[in-house]
């Protein structure tokens, strides 16, 4: 399942199906519902957040821990290295989130809240809160997810808000360790690099799970469009091919 948390915060869609998937609830041997902890780590050739490069075109180290709780609730944290000079957020992003996920037949739902924290960003307000929700449908080896995120007015967003709408699609090729994915998102608000506060990001990716290991290799072509871009030199917003090596336990 492509989770809304990872669609909101991860570098590329192709990594979602394995290393960055949300935890499922664990079932105790006595039939009671328990708690499941999972962890993930990844190296990416660039950290792309909604199409925008936040690592200065350099490698980024990422990872997180998720805890599945009874009755479908979950909490988790995820972090990535950043380029200190690219967008002024410091060298680290730390995301802390919690929510509820449920499945109804082949339909999945996910709602929650995420806090984006930049612990060494320097003077000023940079941390912000965002609420999210998504609905997904599984169709055999394929799944489609529609999601929305809203960050209300905050000082760190220039006293305004931000709205994000996205769609993810993924399919595993039967009989192979290969999966394909696609993503498109629309941003309206502060979190764009455009003069009019609107942007469209997209990606197409493929991933292969390494048999007998927790490793996955992925590649995605990622872009973001705005009219006009504040970033005329393309420092943050040029289309890019992003590679990922990830693992989860």
TrEMBL record:
<protein>
    <recommendedName>
        <fullName>Porin</fullName>
    </recommendedName>
</protein>
<feature type="signal peptide">
    <location>
        <begin position="1"/>
        <end position="26"/>
    </location>
</feature>
<keyword id="KW-0732">Signal</keyword>
<dbReference type="InterPro" id="IPR010239">
    <property type="entry name" value="CHP02001"/>
</dbReference>
<dbReference type="Pfam" id="PF09694">
    <property type="entry name" value="Gcw_chp"/>
</dbReference>
């Amino acid at each position: 399942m492509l989770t809304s948390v990872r669609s909101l915060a991860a570098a590329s869609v192709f990594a979602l199906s394995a290393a960055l998937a949300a935890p499922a609830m664990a079932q105790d041997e006595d039939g009671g519902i328990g708690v499941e902890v999972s962890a993930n780590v990844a190296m990416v050739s660039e950290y792309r957040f909604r199409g925008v490069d936040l690592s200065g075109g350099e490698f980024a180290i990422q990872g997180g821990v998720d805890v599945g709780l009874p009755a479908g609730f979950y909490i988790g944290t995820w972090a990535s290295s950043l380029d200190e000079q690219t967008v002024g957020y410091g060298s680290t992003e730390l995301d802390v989130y919690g929510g509820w996920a449920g499945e109804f037949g082949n339909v999945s739902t996910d709602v929650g809240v995420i806090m984006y924290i930049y612990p060494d960003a320097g003077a000023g307000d940079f941390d912000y809160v965002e609420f999210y929700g998504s609905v997904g449908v599984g169709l055999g080896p394929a799944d489609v997810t529609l999601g929305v995120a809203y960050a209300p007015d905050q000082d760190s967003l220039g006293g305004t808000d931000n709205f994000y709408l996205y769609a993810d699609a993924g399919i595993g090729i039967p009989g192979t360790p290969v999966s394909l994915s696609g993503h498109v998102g629309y941003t309206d608000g502060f979190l764009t690099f455009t003069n009019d506060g609107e942007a469209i990001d997209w990606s197409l990716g493929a991933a292969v799970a390494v048999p007998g290991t927790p490793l996955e290799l992925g590649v995605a072509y990622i872009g973001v469009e705005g009219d006009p871009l504040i970033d005329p030199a393309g420092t943050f917003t040029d289309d890019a091919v992003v590679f990922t090596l990830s693992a989860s336990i």
